[in-house]
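Researcher: Sequence recovery benchmark, item below. Answer with residues only.
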């Protein structure tokens, strides 16, 4: 099988099994074709260039390759896919599952279950049915099938981004900002009218401006740089920069300079950066050093605010029903009412309370 035919077959599987939930990016497709031809990541530097004609780094290709392989392993349900045996292992998969006469896959491997609908519960054991579905009960949700609701917010956010503005998501801790920010970042290639490379930075993992600039350059795929040199390196780039926990910019190791700099790179409809930030309060309140100087926050000046509110009762009930649909467990009406009241509509707290309630059911069956 030629590389192009193999790529089209892989894309067919992705489309039929995952729709638009999991897709291969353009750079991932190029890495796929060269990997099929047996090329090492170091050799790809001379084969694939950025739009400005400058090369990527070998490390960047290694990360693209890892993401590509992880996606293929997940969608094809195969565990033993490695870069050095990339073509051989995929050819083995196609030999077992590809019908040359119909040019279609026979799907002898089982597709990943669709958790958005209620599965049949026959022929399952108690342990199979009762895996706790209320996960993750802390941290952001990074899997599409676990993400729930926020359609209105997603639509509004892309309307703002497509208008040429940056945006900040404002809400209490545990309200779902990080999960929403992550999902917007993952869907950017599908819903942005003007193509931009999505980049996600979690400031909880970065402790000073030097680390920030280094990680930013690394994620974009450009040489480590800052100030004017970084500005030059970004001139031909179009980046959607998602920054989680932006309040970290108030801590030791960061100055107002970084906010002024980000504003400069994000101003104008054709700016190198468009920002989508997550914060616990409005930026003018968060960055009080701006007020002390009689100014507004540099980032507040270019970011429209989108307030993330708690779920209402209807949404909370729908969430509980959705997660329980693939199990043999049902919560009582009294339990549901208590979960709604105690959580106050906060997704993380509701998830944690449901997790504990569900665990009690499982323990009673053991």
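Model:
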């Amino acid at each position: 099988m030629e590389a192009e035919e193999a790529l089209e077959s892989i894309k067919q599987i992705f489309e039929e099994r995952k729709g638009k939930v999991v897709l291969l990016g353009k750079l991932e497709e190029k890495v796929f074709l060269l990997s099929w031809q047996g090329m090492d990541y170091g050799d790809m530097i001379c084969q694939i260039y950025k739009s400005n004609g400058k090369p990527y780094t070998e490390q960047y290709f290694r990360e693209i390759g890892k993401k590509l392989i992880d996606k293929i392993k997940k969608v094809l349900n195969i565990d033993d896919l490695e870069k050095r045996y990339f073509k051989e292992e995929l050819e083995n998969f196609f030999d077992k599952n590809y019908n040359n006469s119909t040019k279609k896959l026979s799907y002898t491997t089982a597709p990943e279950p669709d958790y958005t609908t209620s599965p049949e519960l026959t022929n399952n054991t108690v342990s199979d049915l009762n895996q706790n579905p209320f996960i993750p009960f802390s941290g952001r949700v990074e899997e599409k099938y676990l993400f729930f609701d926020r359609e209105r917010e997603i639509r509004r956010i892309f309307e703002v981004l497509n208008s040429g503005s940056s945006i900040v998501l404002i809400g209490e801790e545990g309200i779902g900002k990080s999960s929403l920010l992550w999902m917007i970042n993952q869907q950017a290639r599908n819903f942005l009218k003007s193509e931009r490379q999505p980049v996600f930075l979690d400031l909880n993992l970065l402790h000073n401006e030097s680390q920030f600039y280094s990680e930013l350059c690394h994620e974009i795929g450009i040489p480590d740089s800052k100030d004017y040199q970084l500005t030059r390196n970004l001139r031909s780039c179009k980046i959607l920069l998602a920054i989680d926990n932006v309040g970290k910019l108030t801590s030791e190791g960061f100055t107002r300079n970084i906010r002024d700099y980000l504003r400069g790179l994000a101003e104008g409809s054709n700016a190198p950066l468009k920002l989508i930030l997550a914060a616990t309060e409005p930026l003018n309140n968060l960055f009080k050093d701006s007020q002390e100087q009689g100014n507004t926050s540099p980032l507040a000046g270019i970011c429209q605010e989108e307030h993330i509110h708690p779920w209402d009762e209807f949404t909370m009930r729908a969430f509980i029903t959705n997660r329980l649909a693939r199990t043999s467990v049902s919560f009582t009406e009294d339990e549901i009412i208590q979960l709604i009241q105690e959580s106050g509509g906060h997704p993380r707290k509701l998830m944690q309370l449901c997790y504990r309630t569900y665990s009690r059911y499982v323990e009673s069956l053991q």
